[in-house]
User: Fold this.
Amino acid sequence: MGFKMGIVGLPNVGKSTLFNALTRTAAAQAANFPFCTIEPNVGEVAVPDARLDTLAAIAKSKSVIPTRMTFVDIAGLVKGASKGEGLGNQFLANIREVDAIAHVLRCFEDGDVTHVEGRVDPVADAETIDTELMLADIESIEKRLQNIVRRVRGGDKEAVQQERLMRLALDALEAGKPARVVEVDADDAKAWRMLQLLTTKPVLYVCNVGESDAAEGNAFSAKVADMAAAQGNAHVIISAQIEEEISQLDPEEAEMFLTEMGLDEAGLDRLIRAGYELLHLETYFTVGPKEARAWTIKSGTSAPKAAGVIHGDFEKGFIRAETIAYDEFVALGGEGPAKEAGKMRAEGKGYTVKDGDVLHFLFNT
Assistant:
């Protein structure tokens, strides 16, 4: 699996410009007026991973298939969205469908680009959206609590559990904190996810800076970094302008351009890596003469569950996984030499797949 990240923010902070650059399309109209993105634009990008190319070269694979990540460019939100202002209702519905939120914050000065609030203050912008999401969650919880009163009185176990969890969330929200601060037991994890609260989504703050600040950031991004650290969230510094320029270049030209700008890598790479860390994702590989392929899993995934990412039948009929660590596969020169050296392991259902594992699954049909 890949994962789906929603790009959100106030109007005119650079969401659509960043989306266009990341997906190398012009699907999202980047224009200097609010709500130019009315329907959420969806784009898929290949997740860059140098390990996959290395494995493919060793195995002489005919095709190389990276795992993919989905970006959703969601319409700009304004104050009052929780009450339906602007495109509020649509915005909130779109957020429910993503795995994580990339919250783009304007960290640049430009008199030609109008700010919806008439000033540049990324921390205040973040608070505006956080407040709207919390208000939307409060309203949602209060409605649902009213709807399950009879079931709770009747002793319905599911309803009783839902009520308890919703009240925990409501306590946090009314204290001005997002629902993700609530610690939930393993027994409640599934029911908690089913609540689909907006403020349980992991957040990655994306500081959109001007070209000259792309390498080190600026005073605006420094304030965002402090805010993110205080919240336990992550942040990345990206120049949407630079990413847009890079998207128009071939790989060699792009590398030269990045070097000239003092950057080690494109913002896409940093954004994906931060997203992976945010959602605790890992990658394993399947490698052969036909294809080398990357697969994304959650950290801590068992071998049968990892097999199920390829096909459900692999999980149902799982027998064992033949496993070679990436470093050993590369150092020894492929599957054959690794097997001869005793570095291929047979792992059963209890094995937890590690990042970089090269796997071959055996299963009953």
